Each structure stands twice: as structure tokens, then as C-alpha cells.
């Protein structure tokens, strides 16, 4: 009798405790937390799956173009919400705020590596109507299978009146990639920057052997340039005509702007104004935005300019000097006189073809 009463009491206490705990659990919304946990884990896994390296199915030749990752910089490279977002009003109720989102590019810098593409992209972000991701996204060649939504998510937030600009100089190397870009947006604006082919070779050489310790032997420039039959660097680095013709074959000419690194290096403002007009933007660039840094030997950002703090969120620059990192502006190798003559003689007819194609002549010191 006593035993059964104890058992009954025990059962009642157990049932009451069970329901009590259930109520507490619900009221604390623990279930919702664990659901949220599951959701977050799922999203992370999905993101990880998307981040996995996808082999290049387009067979795009590797031009050994440099990733920005190895820059030695001390600038603030974090995006803040808004990136280049400069709302006209501080009032969040204003319409502008609700328009802020990540948008696909309307303009691309598609080539060529070692021709000032980083400096061009970086300086262009000074325009209040241009936003640009800090890294080369390489969507149309190496990350194509990740899909457009992934591509969009690599872009900084922007407002409706801002243009998103992406630069991946290796896009120009493959007609398959150009076709993909056309299918993505047949009206996209394309910017191409070229450089004296001999200087470009020197720049690539300096980049390729950047990690060889001081005093250690580097391969001879001439041997490196000639390579073996499968890797003739002259064909690869001098073939502007072939690659630009492929762009002209795919896109209307008025969507393509060809610039010269030499013009940009010596007078960034005039080149940037040309880009501004090409993109149909209101004039915003001014000479006060830059200064020539003698030590660096290049134009750099003027840190005093009111736009500089905004730009710092989108670019990798040295926040002390406003210059690009040490990976830009490297020392170039000397060229033996006879080999220089040989190069000039070989490349000159290619240049003439190029000038005819783009409809303008460029003054290249090595060919004067
Ligand atoms: N303002 C300014 N600051 C620094 N560097 C400048 C600038 N303007 C043009 N350049 C030249 O840009 C060259 C690098 O070109 P890219 O940025 O296209 O190289 S990469 O393909 O993205 O690696 C780089 O080549 P190297 O001199 O061989 O390093 C520079 O000469």
C-alpha cells in the first residue's frame, strides 16, 4: 500500500516536472535557437561547398597574372557596409538607404596583366559612382561554375546610381571567356590597358622571380623570354592584337576602351577622365586626388583628400603614403643590347598591326 502510494507520487512529480521543463524550454525559445543553429550550419556548409576551387573548364592559358594577395600593405582593407556608399543624406528614412545592395558589374577591366590594371581599378574607385571588389574575382574563367549569385556576392554594396566595376586581367586571354561575358551582359563596358611589350616582359620577369633571395642567381632574361617552344613568352606577352581582335569580334566597338599604361602612369587624371566619359558618369575626378611620390616613382592617392578615407575601405594602399604596395613598381631587369635590338625588330610589326586595329598610335620608348 505504502509502496504504491510512493510510486504514484513519484509518477505525478515526474509528469509535472516533464511538462514544467517543456514550458520553460518553449518560453526560452530554445527550439528556435537550435533551428537557427541548424540553419547557420547549413548555410556555412553551403558556402564552404561554393568556395571550393573549381578547375578551369575553359582551358584559359595561365598568364601568371599576379593576385593582389601578396601585397605588403598596411591599409585598412575591410569593407564596411556601403563600401563606396556615400549617401546624400544621413537620414535612414531617405530612399537611398533602401537601394543599397550587391550588384553585378556593369564594367570590367579585362586585360592585360602587368599593364597597370590594379592602379587603374584602384584610382577609379575615387569616383563616387564607382564601386569595385578589392580582389580579382576571376568569375568568368576560374569560378564560372559557382554561378551568378556567387559572383554577385563578391561585389561591394552599391546604390542604384553606382556602377560596379570588376577587374580580372586574365579574362581577355580566352574567346570562351569573352563569350561567357557576352552571354552574361551583351552591353557590359570593357576596359583594356596595354603597355610597351618589352616593359611588360620585364615586369612579368620581375614578378615571376620576386621571391628569389637577394644575391641568388636568377634565370637569364633572354632565356626566360624565349622559353621553350611550348612557353614562348614573346607570343604570349606581345600578342595584344590577337587578343583585342577577339574582343572586337565579340562586342561592339563602342563598348570597348583601349588605354595605354604609359599615359595612365604619367597622367592618371586625363586617363581617368576618359574612363569617366566612357562609363557615362558625371565628372568627379580632380588633380587634387593624387600626388607624385618621388620615392615610389608613381602617382599615389592624396591622403588629405576628403574621399581618401572612403577609398581606403575598398583598396589595398599604404595608408601612410597613399601608394600601392611594394608588389607594384618593382625593379626591372636590364636587357642585353643585342637582345634588345632583336626584340625591337621582332615586335615592331606587331605594334603596327595593333595600332591599326585600335585606331591610334602609342608612343613606346623602346620603339622610338
Ligand atoms: N600609380 C601606380 N602605382 C603603382 N604601379 C603602377 C601605377 N601606375 C602604373 N603602375 C604599374 O602597374 C604595374 C602592375 O600592373 P598590374 O597591376 O596590371 O599587374 S597585375 O597583372 O595585376 O599583377 C606595375 O608594374 P611593375 O613596375 O613592373 O611592378 C607598375 O609599373
From TrEMBL:
InterPro entries: NST/OST, P-loop_NTPase, Sulfotransferase_dom. The active site is at residue 114. 3'-phosphoadenylyl sulfate binds at residues 195, 203, 299, 328-332. GO terms for molecular function: [heparan sulfate]-glucosamine 3-sulfotransferase activity. Residues 105-348 form the Sulfotransferase domain. Keywords: Disulfide bond, Glycoprotein, Membrane, Transferase, Transmembrane, Transmembrane helix. Residues 50-79 have a biased composition (Acidic residues). The keyword Transmembrane applies. It holds the Pfam family Sulfotransfer_1. The chain crosses the membrane at residues 6-24. Disulfide bonds join 300-323. Residues 50-96 are annotated as: Disordered. This is Sulfotransferase domain-containing protein. It comes from Elysia chlorotica.
